[in-house]
Amino acid sequence: MSRHLTPARIDVIVAAAVGSFALAEVFADPLRPHAASIPLELVQAAAVAFRRRAPAAAVVVATAALFAQTAAGVSLHTPVSPIVVGLITVYSVAQYEPLPRALAGLVFALCGLLGAVQLARANGEDYAAGDQIFVSVFILAPWIVGRALYGRTREAADHAERAARLEREREAIVEEERARIARELHDVISHSLSVIVVQAGAAERVGAAQPERSQDALRSIQETGRQALVEMSRLVGVLRGGEEVGLEAQPGLDRVERLVEDTRRAGLPVELRVEGRVRRLPPALDLSAYRIVQEALTNARKHAGGASVEVALRYGEEDLVIEVADDGRGEGRGSGGGHGLIGMRERAAVFGGTLDAGPREAGGFVVRATLPLDGAAA
């Protein structure tokens, strides 16, 4: 459904159509009292416009207007629009209201319509006892249908509310993870600038006395500055908090072996395999690659249940593929929507990469991240 054509707007359109039909009925019958018919039938039609937002009120308004119309001398045999309004509003109060209010709406409509029949008889119209039974069935039928659909309506509303809540929680997790990534990127840039300051001081001290060391320092400044500019460009647009952060350098893939060893000591058998020509990565990319491995091992330790894990780093010419696979049961990880997996996907997406996670055909679970190596040093 189009976002502009909401259920509330559909009800307004239906109410306008019913109102137009009611006016056509009034002007087609010259014997009807227009002074009473026109406003009261428009009130009945208007009740359709808020039948979902306030179903009980819609029944009360429609029934009271019909009763007043009959009291004003309008025959119940003539108009069709009140029948349409009655069917819609009684059905709505049964479908959208809880049982006590739905029953109250039914009783009010039933009493109002039966009272209108008695008024019509007092005005000389021919109504027998069988007509009252017909009126009762006329009210009960749409109410029963609406009540039968009440459970489905509530279930759909609960599902929609739950989906909206989960989406809000996911957005909060994504924002939190982006803020954490931004802090780490800030640490990388701060570290790079501190290196530049140290190397510039070294180049100034050695000066002309040791030109080779001075050139090395200047080359280091150039390379570090270039990397810092790349990381700063990635930082733009990433929301973060304003808390203070330190200048300590963050870990990279050079510490994966230590991470694997620590994981082994924690009781999870892990094997590390490195393929291809190892490349030196920009600091922020190096950090995110390390964090992906770290988070994947954490997930495996939580969910793999004593299984063995293999970590593979595959360096290609254009990208780095990180694969962490276990042969456990993988219970609790579902389709890959956990908080840890959301964070890993965000880390990969910052650099234009992708991350896939899910069960393996041979059993177990695999996390596979592909990170572009644009600008990585040889």
Verbal overview:
- It is a single chain.
- The chain is elongated and about 120 Å long.
- A five-stranded mixed sheet has the order 1-2-3-5-4, covered by helices on one side.
- Helices cover 63% and strands 9% of the residues.
- The protein starts with 6 loop residues before the first helix and ends in a 6-residue tail after the last strand.
- It is built from eleven helices and five strands.
- α3 (55-71) runs parallel beside α5 (99-122), α4 (81-96) packs antiparallel against α5 (99-122) and α5 (99-122) packs antiparallel against α6.
- It has helices at residues 7-28, 34-49, 55-71, 81-96, 99-122, 129-148, 150-206, 211-235, 256-265, 283-303, 339-350, and strands at residues 270-275, 309-315, 319-326, 354-359, 365-372.
- The protein has three domains: 7-148; 174-235, Single alpha-helices involved in coiled-coils or other helix-helix interfaces (Up-down Bundle); 253-372, Histidine kinase-like ATPase, C-terminal domain (Heat Shock Protein 90, 2-Layer Sandwich), CATH 3.30.565.10.
Features:
Heat Shock Protein 90; Single alpha-helices involved in coiled-coils or other helix-helix interfaces; single chain; alpha+beta; five-stranded mixed β-sheet
List the helices and strands and how they pair.
Layout: H1 7-28, H2 34-49, H3 55-71, H4 81-96, H5 99-122, H6 129-148, H7 150-206, H8 211-235, H9 256-265, E1 270-275, H10 283-303, E2 309-315, E3 319-326, H11 339-350, E4 354-359, E5 365-372
Parallel strand pairs: 1-2
Antiparallel strand pairs: 2-3, 3-5, 4-5
Helix pairs in contact: 1-2, 1-4, 2-3, 2-4, 3-4, 3-5, 4-5, 4-6, 5-6, 7-8, 7-10, 7-11, 9-10, 10-11
